[in-house]
Design brief:
Largest sheet: 10 strands, mixed
Distance between the termini: 60 Å
Strand content: 15-25%
Strand order of the largest sheet: 1-2-3-10-9-8-5-4-11-22
Number of helices: 20
């Protein structure tokens, strides 16, 4: 009874404080089992969230894209206090964004609420719909801002401390500082972008249907321009072509003859990241179907009426348009640029991490996905240390037999060695040295043998596939951190004693698709398997359905595809 009375008194005291008009001006500390929440005083009026007295390490995840959602899906929430900060409370299946622009798939079919991902899992989990605008690695805090004011100053700012920070904020569209792009072009990075494009397409057709327009005005209204010949731009152009010919042509028969779809690419070819056979097939298909392909054209200015571009042969030309979609690559977000200055990476384009996805210069900050890239350690930077590790008897020479004792560690730590051997069709390390097992090599001969190996160091592409694998890898490392601390499983430390805790991240390429419209898709799978056609389109359907984050979205997407086959795409301007 005494305990019950004490609790009652506490509740009455809390309610009294809440009713006090001047309570916001005081510093209040509320201690509640799992942590402490501190409200800043009237100096900076920023909410300080300082939870985590449970004894568990606090992991803060920034972003809910492919890397963040994959990490969240695989992390053991019973081992950590997991906090997620993101301006959107859902995961988005980005490969189907072009399908949303034309109504092939509905927007809600490709999104999965973040809370659904962890709903059935135990452990501590918190989500805040806010945007992080500053990372402070020195004090191990992040500064966030919510959309609605929530603290005494009404600006929605709060600070969160962390033990481990996982940065997965992605990237922004890269405009290359081209004048007029932000004001006049559509991007295709978010669900909202796809919805805006869908509305704009229908508005263009409705405008072109109005009476008292000249023929030139009608042509301008339904001239759709795609800037960028990468996978996103090409897929959107193909989707739009199908939408026009399969659905809108029946609804706007008088407008159909004025429709023109143009793809502008600064390089010589589109889809340059694919096999040349796919590139040539895509270009030929677009030309046959009447899609105007402009290669070697660089856009220099975009106004509300025309797109100005240059070409070595034609010079500068201005083209009128009705809708423009900018899809020319990705750029660095301001928060990452500011963070890079703090950690000595101001001259880089993206955040640099080591092979374990740890930000260079920050032991407890990890970066995944489009906002970061792995800086693979080069063999020639460590060749002296490699030689010393292999030369266990300190004889000053190496044989293939000695090297074989550390060969597995070398392959793990420097994957470019194994890739170089495969690229040059070498059977093993002995082919690289070109010596028999009995012959010894000194340090200079060893350096000469490895001189060309680092030519195989490559940056990973900024794709959903890479980000998802990075998220799953890092979550697995976190789940086994205590075990691997006692029993390290990584390669030998070339510069230091012992072994690394974990094996380095290794990307496994599973293939890539390029939908080209007309129920035809190009596929490039491991083993130099390239195929284009209707059968590959069904492979695309099955793969993308299976890759959905839940059975709910899987069923919604498949239902949308079925609806499109039976009833066609919806042309409402919603």
């Amino acid at each position: 009874m005494a305990s019950s009375g004490g609790l009652s008194m506490v509740r009455r005291a809390v309610e009294a404080v809440r009713r006090t008009p001047r309570w916001q001006k005081r510093l209040v500390f509320l201690t509640v089992g799992v942590g402490t929440v501190s409200y800043a005083c009237q100096d900076n009026r920023v909410l300080q969230i300082n939870e985590g007295s449970t004894g568990k390490k606090k992991v803060v995840i920034l972003g809910t894209g492919w890397a963040g959602a994959s990490f969240l899906r695989n992390i053991d929430t019973s081992l950590y206090d997991v906090h997620v900060v993101s301006p959107r409370n859902y995961f988005m299946f980005t490969p189907l964004l072009p399908s949303v622009t034309c109504g092939t798939v509905e927007p809600r079919s490709i999104v999965e609420p973040i809370r659904n991902i962890v709903r059935k899992r135990g452990g501590a989990f918190r989500f805040w719909e806010a945007e992080c605008f500053k990372i402070d690695p020195t004090s191990m805090k992040i500064h966030c801002r919510a959309g609605d004011g929530t603290n005494v100053d009404g600006n929605g700012e709060f600070v969160v401390d962390y033990d481990y920070l996982v940065v997965t904020v992605g990237a922004k569209p890269n405009t290359f500082n081209t004048p007029g792009v932000v004001e006049n072009c559509h991007f295709l990075k978010e669900v909202e972008d796809a919805q805006k494009i869908r509305k704009s397409v229908m508005k263009c057709f409705e405008k072109a249907s109005l009476p008292n327009l000249t023929e030139e005005e009608r042509k301008k209204n339904v001239h759709f321009v795609v800037i960028g010949g990468g996978p996103t731009g090409v897929e959107f152009a193909a989707e739009l072509h199908d939408f026009v010919n399969e659905d809108l042509a029946k609804l706007y028969p008088d407008v159909k003859k004025y429709v023109n779809i143009s793809v502008i690419e600064a390089g010589e070819h589109i889809l340059t990241m694919f096999d040349k056979r796919i590139t040539h097939f895509a270009e030929d298909k677009f030309k046959r179907e009447g899609i105007d392909l402009k290669t070697n054209f660089k856009v220099v200015k975009v106004s509300d009426k025309t797109i100005t571009m240059t070409n070595p042969a034609t010079g500068e030309i201005a083209v009128p348009y009705g809708l423009a979609v900018w899809s020319t690559g990705i750029g660095t977000r301001p928060i990452i640029m500011d963070f890079m200055k703090q950690v000595g990476q101001a001259t880089r384009r993206v955040l640099a991490t080591d092979e374990w996805l740890r930000v260079n210069g920050c032991d407890n900050v990890y970066a995944l996905g489009d906002c970061a890239t792995i800086t693979q350690r080069k063999v020639m930077e460590d060749v002296d240390a490699i030689f010393r590790v292999a030369d266990k008897d300190n004889s000053g020479t190496l044989s293939v037999k000695k090297i074989k004792h550390v060969l597995g560690d070398i392959y793990q730590r420097y994957p470019q060695v194994e890739l170089y051997l495969k690229t040059n069709q070498m059977k093993g390390f002995h082919d690289l040295l070109k010596d028999k097992e009995s012959e010894e090599l000194n340090i200079e001969e060893f350096k000469k043998a490895l001189a060309q190996v680092d030519s195989q160091v490559k940056m990973l592409p900024a794709t959903a596939q890479v980000a998802a694998q990075e998220g799953a890898y890092l979550a697995d490392c976190f789940n086994r951190m205590n075990t691997c601390e006692e029993n390290p499983e990584g390669p030998l430390r070339i510069r230091g004693a012992g072994r690394h805790r974990f094996k380095p991240f290794r990307y496994r390429h599973l293939g890539q698709f390029a939908p080209l419209g007309g129920e035809q898709t190009a596929a490039q799978l491991p083993g130099d398997w390239v195929h284009v056609g209707h059968s590959t389109q069904w492979l695309w359907y099955s793969v993308y359905a299976s890759k959905q984050f839940s059975w709910r979205t899987r069923m919604l997407v498949v239902t949308d595809w079925g609806r499109r086959f039976i009833f066609g795409r919806d042309s409402s301007s919603l």
